[in-house]
Inverse folding.
């Protein structure tokens, strides 16, 4: 996604103008190059872990803090055996209607479970999710 | 706008930078919207007290006396979003 996309209609005009100001480095631009990590061992010996910033978490865990001015650095472990009905979303920065109808659009846990027949060990208890609402550099000492 | 940027603003007393950050946060990236959101929360709070309903002042005073300032500041942000949500005019894409 680019910082300015004419094709993508925003709910509120001007939203992107301040994204980089609020969360520097959070928007990937065409100038950025992030090389993919090559697979260095057979799939059968590999483990998959899903790391997401979608704000998805198991019901009953402390809700992500979406009101804090600097953000929430915490994460939740999402068991790989979870049903979408076991999970909920706490996220103020994107429309969640679609994801509430089908969580897989932002957190494709059922798609991952369908991969179980693949020769891949999908690591149990080790999907991670945190909340996107973080002021970048806040983790720096 | 990083934490370092904000801390430097605090150090030199540049409150304009700080309030801009707050407005951007509350306005979801739009400073003018953030200003309106702040007003909206205060209006909602005022409306709730106009009939002078009985309130739990004991809880309020106890909380103010016993809780640390950071927790109270955090509560302040929670109360803002609570009041904005209660107003029925929700501008944010997602939910709390």
């Amino acid at each position: 996604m680019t910082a300015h996309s004419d094709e993508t209609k925003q709910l509120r005009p001007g939203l992107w103008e301040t994204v980089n100001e609020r969360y520097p480095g959070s928007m990937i631009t065409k100038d950025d190059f992030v090389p993919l990590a090559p697979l260095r061992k057979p799939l059968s010996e590999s483990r998959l872990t899903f790391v997401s910033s979608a704000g998805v978490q198991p019901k009953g865990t402390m809700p992500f803090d979406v009101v804090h001015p600097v953000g929430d650095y915490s994460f939740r472990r999402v068991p790989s055996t979870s049903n979408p009905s076991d999970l909920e979303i706490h996220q103020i920065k994107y429309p969640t209607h679609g994801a509430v109808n089908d969580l897989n659009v932002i957190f494709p846990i059922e798609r991952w479970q369908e991969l179980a027949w693949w020769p891949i060990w999908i690591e149990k208890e080790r999907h991670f999710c945190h909340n996107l609402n973080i002021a970048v550099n806040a983790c720096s000492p | 706008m990083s934490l370092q940027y904000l801390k430097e603003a605090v150090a030199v007393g540049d409150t304009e930078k700080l309030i801009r950050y707050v407005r951007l946060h509350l306005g979801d990236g739009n400073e003018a919207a953030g200003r309106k959101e702040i007003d909206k929360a205060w209006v909602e709070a005022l409306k709730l007290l106009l009939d002078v309903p009985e309130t739990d002042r004991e809880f309020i005073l106890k909380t103010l006396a016993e809780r640390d300032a950071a927790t109270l500041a955090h509560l302040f942000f929670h109360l803002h979003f609570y009041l904005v949500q209660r107003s029925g005019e929700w501008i944010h894409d997602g939910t709390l």
